[in-house]
Every structure is written in C-alpha cells, then in structure tokens.
Amino acid sequence: MTLRFYDSATASVRDFVPLTEGRASVYYCGATVQGEPHIGHVRSALAFDQLTRWLQAKGLEVTVVRNVTDIDDKILVKAVENNEPWWALAYRFEQAFEDAYDALGILKPTYEPRATGHIPEMHALISLLIERGHAYPALDDSSDVYFNVRSWKQYGSLTRQNIDDMQAAPDADPRGKKDARDFALWKGSKPGEPETASWASPWGAGRPGWHLECSAMVTKYLGTEFDIHGGGLDLRFPHHENEMAQSQAAGHGFANFWMHNGMVTFEGEKMSKSIGNTINPREMLQIARPLVVRYYLGQAHYRSVLDYRPGSLTEAAAAVERIETFVNAAVSQAHSNGKVSDTGNLPDAFTAAMDDDLNIPAALAVLHETVRAGNTALAKKDIEATGVALEAVVSMTDALGINPLDEQWARGGDATAELAALDVLVKAQLEARAQARTEKNWAESDKIRDVLAAAGIDIADSANGSTWSLRR
C-alpha cells in the first residue's frame, strides 16, 4: 500500500511522495515556554514522533525541526507574575518540556531553533512582504508591522473560512491597522516592557509576532518548500492559517502537507484549570511508568480526540504488561539476546495500517494479535513460532517507540520513581512555606526556600501558588 496522510489544507487523504527522493522534511510547532507542559503539548510531540519513526521505518532519511517560542506576550506577563527575568522563565520551562519529551522517549529533532535566535531572518521576511505589497508599517507610528490579509486572496483557505466572517486579530491594538483582521508581524516596544525583550528593526524597536517566527525558522532550515508542517488542531487558526498566508505571499511554496493532531479531553470535557479537570505529564508519570504513559498517549489515531478518565492508565498498563510478559518469556525460551529489531519483519497488516494515515489503533490490533499467537506458541513450546512472533512484536514496538527491551524504559522507570518521591517531599516543604507566609513568619519562609535552593531546587511564586524545578 502507498504511504498516505490526511492533508488539512485539502481536507483529503493523499499519497505522500517526498519532494526529494529518499528524504523527508518535517516541521512541527514546539512549545511556547510560558509554563509547565500540559498533556496536549506532549500528545502533539508524541504524534509527530510516531510520524518520524514510521517515515524512518519506510527507509527515508528524515530531517525534523521543532521550534521553541521563547519570546511572546504570555511569557512576558508570566515573568512579571513570577518576578523573574522573562528569559530565565522561558529557559526554565523549556527544560521542563525537554524533561517531559525525554521521559516519554520522544526522539530529539534534528534541530530545535529558538525564536530569539532568528531576528534577522524575520526582518528579511517582513521586508519581502512589504516589498510585495502584503504588509505595511502601522498607521499610528507604533513601530508595529502588519500583514494585510485582504491583499492575499487565498487567506482563510487552510481552515476554509470567509475573511468577512472572521473575528479581529487580538494580537495588537487595532488602531494602527487597515483591517482589524490584519495580524502583527512585528510588535513595537511598549512602555514598561523590559529592554531585553526588544530588538532594533527598520520599523522601530520591538519583537516578532508569533506567526512570523515559525515561517522564518522553517524556511531557514528546511527551505521555502518542504514536505510536512504539523501541530495541534488548536493551531490551525489563526497560527497556521497566518503562517501559510505570509509564507505563500512571500512567494514560498511552503508545506506540501499540513498535519494536525487531535486534542485531549477529561471524561469527554475540555480540560480547564478553572474546573479542576486537568492532568499534566508530571502527574501521569507519578501514576504510571513512562512506557505506560507513552502507550496511552499514542494509542488513539493521531487525528482523533484522546479522552482521559480515571482508569485510563490502568488499562494502558495492562496492555503494556501483556506485551512485556510475552516478550520476556519468549526471550527466555529462545535464549535470545533481546536485540531483535529488524523492521523487515513487520507484518503486512501492521504496515498497511501505518501506511494508511498512521492508523495506530489498527496497528496495535495487529501487535496484540501477534502477542496472542506468540503466547499460544509458547504454551506449545514451539520455539520456531515463538521466535517468529518475538521478532514481529519487537519490530512493531520498535516502530511505535514502545519496545519493552529498549534501555530507555529501564532508565525512565527509575528516574520517574525518584522524581515522584522528590515531588512529594518538595510539595510538603512548599505547603509549610505557604503556611509560614500566611502567618507572616518570613524568617521560616526564607529558611525553607534557602534549604531547597541549597538542594538545587528553584521555587517560583505566582498568584496561583508556588512551583518548583530542579536547577540545571
């Protein structure tokens, strides 16, 4: 079967033919590092990790770029709340994302550019858009620069919207815009903002707009036309719509495929801190081993909604244990060295499922069917049939990143147990510190903070309470 993916831009499943034979180029939106990663962030990274692994399994050399948005209005606001430099806050949370990715075995990208490292490229793109008549400096001399959405007739095509039905772009004051829907390419510095969050430009000091950052970074590393652009479904509008418009308006072919992963819900409802129905990666990793969490987050079709409910991780753990039990028994019976990983042994049904827009549920069905067949062979002491099933199971789990023989999971389990124990201890100290602060016992509060600091633990206070992170 031909490798096929759903393309959001055409709303159809299309044959995937790389722009360059034997190679695939993938860009997917990484973190805006304003806070701890939530489960939606991790699911998105895992979905594109599965894509990367499958492209590699198909024999392609894959270049993956995943950006870090390390300058943004939300980062500046959160830094003020936490009373720390915005760049320190951004870096701290960037490391928290990396920890979550590493814990779940998400492959590191070929490159991970930061927005702040690509200001010249952004200036060049803005200048090109102005030259081509698709952007203009703000009419109020604020140093803002906007993309003129009505200058690009295809605007709205990614999400199939009529421009007149769209709401105003909320990223800047509309007073300097020709149309309220025009979005910011460059945002002039505002009074009270830190000087470190501002760069000189031909239009005045300021910082880049969110949408511009990705267009500049992806074209620098993957060129003006590349194979796949991905991200969460919530990024389709306005972020990806704006990316596509400004890039194509600049004369770039840009992405050949647009792929978007579905959201994560809590018992059928959108997760919301205000009603308390949220769970984050750290909490999941306290409940279950990293391999189990990865299995759970990656078991649904990437485009579908993944619903979390109490018991979800227990069910995933049972599925993982069935795989592990067979693999361990088969390795023991066959006296295998545990390094069987030839993806040439992938069952045809598994390959067909994965080729069909990464149909993970169907692929997992083949995996578990093979495990059942392997267990039958084990019971019959059929060493040859057991070995065939073992090779197939290891090959499939390798392709999905859930091979129980992988050293990743042996390391991750211990690290997660230690982190969970540390989290309990530190939270107890934070509760004692919060009580001391309530009683205005500042000496005791400072003492607790100093003890934690001496142990390499940084505390960040905000209106929502205190959080902790390990100093690197």
Please characterize this protein's 3D structure.
The chain has 472 residues and is an alpha/beta fold. Helix content is 46%, strand content 15%. It has a four-stranded parallel sheet with strand order 4-3-9-10. The longest helix is centred in the last third of the chain and has 32 residues, at 407-438. The chain starts with a strand and ends with a strand. The relative contact order is 0.12. The model is unreliable at 335-343 and 412-416 (pLDDT under 50).
Name the quaternary structure.
single chain
Strand content range: 15-25%
Number of helices: 14
Q: Give me the strand/helix succession.
A: EEEHEHHHEEEEHEHEEEHHEHHHHHHEE
Shape verdict: globular
How much is the radius of gyration in Å?
25 Å
According to DSSP, the number of beta strands is 15
Quick rundown:
The chain is of the alpha/beta class.
What are the defining features of this structure?
472 residues, alpha/beta, four-stranded parallel beta sheet, four-stranded antiparallel beta sheet, 46% helix, globular
